[in-house]
Design brief:
27 strands, alpha+beta, about 600 residues
Length: about 600
């Protein structure tokens, strides 16, 4: 804290560039208000800011959300062009036993192959160059070596080259000015990089603008997208390809670097706090009377009995059958599902469904169609042949036109399935927008062609059949009876925020004993502030639906709330918990007691 209870500073404002607002002298006064207790959300927030500042000053590079060490990048022996960046996932948070520093090992995989190499290979390979290059690059994440930032490739602009001009910004004294320059000149002046090829197309990455979206404008969403143009020659690919992932020897060699045993992981983890203590000049924890411990905390652990999963559960008779068996250390029961029927399937099966796919993945589409029908039968889901619709190209407009034409034809489809050549976001968004937000909503399933090819076809089709059954109102399996927690309603909450737009709340509540029927809502919040999330109305409806199915109100409500920072915990406790309690009193009555468990889920 400052030495005096009240401290003032005088500063001069810059004023406006055009001179309409002159510089002005202002005084900023800091007054001591109260002491913040150790472990409070505010203190934890400051500690995490200091932690990130230390990692930046120590030479680590921020890639995505985590920091990595460029001076320790390793080339994997036997794998040409594959580099592994070691790094840390860190957080200071309140845990059982007090405030602790959480540290874990992370890795980022990059390739020496640039996006320009991919485009050049597409040109040498013949055929449709644009289509072949976009098939590989669109949807991939690339890293620019000049600033070590990552970008998602959303498109390739074949009409723009590094010789085109754009508006860049630079500091001129204390002012910031815009100027027009070519990409060639910009990288030479800014990063001292000389481009070898000037006739290459530009990669496009879409980044949402932070400004407000114009109201009542049908093109608002398009206008709000800020396009970032990247030179392929300067963009290295990240991650590994599907072919590399399917190569046993490749994954074995990569695993020697990324799969760290417990002893080595502990040794590497301890290097982090030791480095911090040996380089105190790079952080200011001492100013806060905070010392970083160099030893592990040894907690007392508990091993919970795994919950059994069954194909059939009769809650009234407390009987069960069809246990899904799996290894306790690897709880994956996919193989058991193939030989057993799903817990609940639509009575009429899947008779009328539409399958749209581009011409160039016709073979993969036919293989998926036949295998999906084959694996769904033994699982109890009867599937008839789909109405197949080929489209000449895989552009978003082609999918949109084909879907709208079929949905407006008068045929009532139970499901819309689309095969995509890659995970391009714009194409996927259009399909989901039409199927869920259009005038004729319909359950939809997108399938990427490379995920249903080769040896993984059967496994992928099994998992897709499970997804489709759930989307059609079926159930995959049932947990064993909850004992004293029978009659529990589970509520899931998450909030999507974007600057300049209204927040959207995702709300889902279970309605039956086996936790496989739900009431869900997407709530657009037009207000901001403490009462931004309005939960009373959807909770009241969910309680009524629960009673309609079970003949009584729930005895317990368990809420799982995602997306809450430490500083928001008091708001959640005082606002959201109170709203759910008020909804229970309104619908159930003040004399009927309903237990409430509110669980805040955090990634760290």
């Amino acid at each position: 804290r400052l030495e005096d209870d009240e401290t003032s500073f005088t500063v001069m404002t810059r004023g406006s560039k055009d001179g309409t607002i002159p510089p002005e002298q202002i005084t900023i006064t800091f007054k001591f208000n109260h002491r913040v207790p150790w472990g409070s959300p505010t203190i934890l927030q400051v500690m995490n800011i200091l932690l990130k500042s230390y990692m930046k000053k120590s030479g680590m590079t921020l890639i995505g959300r985590h920091y990595f060490q460029p001076n320790r990048v390793k080339s994997v022996q036997g794998l040409d062009g594959i580099n592994v960046w070691p790094g840390y996932v860190t957080a200071i948070s309140e845990c059982t036993g007090g405030v602790m520093l959480n540290v874990d090992i992370a890795h980022k995989i990059t390739r020496s192959q640039s996006a320009f190499h991919v485009i050049s290979d597409a040109k040498r390979g013949g055929g449709n160059v644009k289509e072949n290059a976009e098939k590989v690059l669109v949807g991939e994440v690339v890293m620019t070596g000049y600033n070590n930032k990552t970008y998602r490739v959303d498109d390739i602009d074949w009409d723009v080259t590094p010789l085109h001009t754009f508006k860049a910004g630079r500091k001129s004294g204390k002012e910031f000015e815009e100027y027009e320059t070519t990409y060639v000149d910009y990288y030479r002046e800014r990063y001292q990089l000389t481009l070898k090829t000037t006739d290459q197309p530009m990669l496009v990455s879409r980044n949402k603008d932070k400004g407000p979206i114009p109201a009542n404008n049908p093109e608002a969403e398009h206008q709000a997208q800020r396009l970032i143009y990247l030179v392929p020659e300067l963009c290295n690919l990240t991650g590994i390809t599907e072919r590399q992932r399917a190569d046993f020897n490749f994954m074995k060699e990569l695993g020697k670097v990324t799969r760290i045993g417990p002893n080595d992981r502990a040794k590497l983890t301890m290097e982090y706090p030791r480095d911090m203590n040996s380089r105190k000049e790079l952080h200011r924890f001492d100013n806060w009377s905070v010392k970083i411990n160099t030893g592990f905390v040894k907690p007392t652990a508990r091993r919970l009995k795994p919950v059994g999963m069954y194909q059939f559960v009769d809650w009234a008779k407390k009987t069960r059958g069809g246990e899904l068996k799996s290894n306790p250390d690897n709880p994956d029961w996919t193989n058991s599902i193939r030989s057993m029927k799903l817990a609940r399937v639509p009575a009429e099966g899947l008779k009328s469904w539409l399958f749209i796919f581009p011409e160039r993945v016709s073979r993969e589409a036919q293989d998926f169609h036949n295998t999906f029908i084959k694996v769904a039968g033994p699982m109890g889901l009867k599937v008839d042949n789909a109405e197949l619709q080929r489209i000449p190209r895989d552009t978003p407009a082609m999918y949109q036109d084909a879907i709208m034409a079929k949905l407006n034809s008068g045929v009532r489809y139970q499901l819309l399935a689309c095969m995509l050549p890659n995970n391009q976001k714009q194409r996927y968004d259009i399909i989901k927008k039409i199927s869920y937000c259009g005038q004729k909503p319909i359950p939809s399933q997108c399938v990427i062609s490379k995920t249903v090819s080769g040896k993984k076809l059967m496994s992928a089709c099994t998992k897709i059949a499970m997804q489709i059954n759930a989307k059609l109102g079926g159930a995959l399996w049932h947990p064993e009876p909850l004992g004293s927690f029978a009659g529990t309603m589970t509520i899931g909450l998450d909030v999507f925020h974007q600057k300049g737009q209204n927040s959207i709340v995702g709300y889902v509540a279970s309605l039956n004993q086996t936790q496989d029927r739900f009431y869900s809502r997407a709530l657009i919040q037009t207000e901001r502030g403490e009462n931004m999330i309005k939960l009373q109305e959807p909770t009241q409806v969910a309680l009524q639906r629960f009673k309609e199915l079970n003949g009584q109100f729930p005895k317990h409500i368990c809420v799982f709330r995602d997306g809450v920072g430490d500083g928001q915990l008091p708001l959640v406790r005082n606002s959201e918990c109170r709203q759910i309690t008020e909804a229970v009193k309104t619908v159930v009555g003040p004399d009927h007691k309903v237990g409430l468990i509110f669980v805040v889920v955090q990634k760290r």
